[in-house]
Amino acid sequence: MSRRGVSAENLRKVVHIAVVVAVISVCAQIAIPLFVPVTLQVFGVLLAGFLLGPRYGFYAVLIYVVLGLMGLPVFAGFRGGFSVVVSPTFGYIISFPIAAVVAGIFFNANLREIFKIPLAVLAPTAIIYLFGVFYLMIWSRYIAAKPMSLAAALSVGVLPFVWFDIIKGAAAYYLTKKLRPVLRYLNR
User: Fold this and answer.
1) Beta carbons within 8 Å of 45's beta carbon, 6+ residues apart
2) Residue 75 belongs to a domain with what CATH number?
């Protein structure tokens, strides 16, 4: 193969990243109408890390975030653009690439499944909530001009969603376990 050509492996990686960006974008729009609005956005982010690994999962989720910040309506509720930066949910969004890295690291870790599954699901979810709550408190103080305590931020930004996100993370983990052998077969 010449130096100017694109290798089949690189092309495959680009396609995988593009497909995962599309999957996350679609997942963000799937709302489950419960007592709080729940989307599959976190499912898509963790799936990216699990399926593509830490490096390419990071790239996929970073591209997703950048596309949204550029104005494409890929975030939950078909939102995108600068208005997302000044919304209370921006902290969660900026955590997504890091969460994908952590998800990929733990999914690929050489650990027994009994330790791997909780770490792969809980660690990236905790990162999402850490960034989300921190930004929610900043947003409430400086943008909404109604300061929020840590307890209030946790009760609004974590407690209604945490069990759903753990279930979505576990579903992404098990789906990846089933998809990886299929992808290996297709990539031969």
Assistant:
1) 24, 61, 96, 99, 100, 103, 124, 128
2) 1.10.1760.20
| Domain count along the chain | 1
Residue 2 lies in a domain: no
Contacts of 15-19 spanning 24+ positions with Cβ under 8 A:
16/51, 16/52, 16/56, 16/60, 16/183, 17/52, 17/56, 17/59, 17/60, 17/63
Q: Which domain holds residue 121?
A: 8-186
pLDDT tens-digit series, residues 86-111: 999 999 999 999 999 999 999 999 99
The DSSP letter of residue 160 is T
Per-residue pLDDT tens digits for 20-71 = 999 999 999 999 887 767 899 999 999 999 999 999 999 999 999 999 999 9
